[in-house]
Write a structure and sequence with these properties.
The protein has about 180 residues and is an all-alpha fold. It has 7 helices and no strands.
């Protein structure tokens, strides 16, 4: 294993853990690595080291997310994303009978229902957790992109493009409203 590879692994561990714990874990790993190098082949020792590191990563990532409250931010963003579907459905049900034109219904669906629901979700998400609204915008962007790729013929291209742009910007606008009204 090259020194640069070891440095990258050490950087990853120190990023995921508090420095006091990272130093102890790295010290134990490097000490065990030295002992194993005396008894085994370098390839076997490298394999052992990477298995140890890989088996530690899920726990370390979970602990890092918990410590930084990233998990809560993710939960709020996903819950907001799911709530958007319910809010948009209610708005769509209330507004759809107002017109018989398919084009007008689609505009109501995208512009009124989708954007209003996304803005409201961004507003609430930002109230609960400041970083949740940008994450919600990313979820909308990914969801809209997947919709365009996986089912390109389901709706007109302008609908997909509008949802991609306006749907992604709406949570950010909701977060900005949330900040503005909290300051006032």
């Amino acid at each position: 294993m090259s020194p640069s590879t070891l440095l990258r692994a050490q950087w990853l561990l120190t990023w995921l853990m508090p420095s006091a714990y990272a130093e102890a874990l790295l010290g134990d790993l490097l000490e065990e690595r030295r002992l194993r190098l005396d008894a085994g082949s370098p390839a076997g020792v490298a394999r052992w080291y990477w298995i140890q590191l890989a088996s530690s990563l899920p726990v370390l990532i979970w602990a890092s997310m918990y410590r930084r409250s990233s998990f809560l931010t993710l939960v709020i963003a996903v819950a907001s994303y799911l709530a958007v579907g319910g809010v948009a459905f209610v708005l769509r049900t209330a507004l759809s009978p107002m017109t018989t034109s398919m084009f007008a219904r689609t505009v109501i669906d995208v512009l009124l229902c989708g954007v209003i629901a996304m803005t409201a979700a961004g507003y609430v998400a930002a109230l609960l957790r400041p970083g949740a609204a940008p994450l919600l915008a990313v979820l909308v962007l990914v969801g809209a992109s997947l919709m365009m790729v996986l089912d390109p013929d389901s709706v007109p291209l302008w609908y997909e493009g509008s949802f991609l742009v306006l749907g992604s910007l709406a949570p950010i606008a909701g977060a900005a409203l949330s900040r503005r009204w909290r300051k006032a």
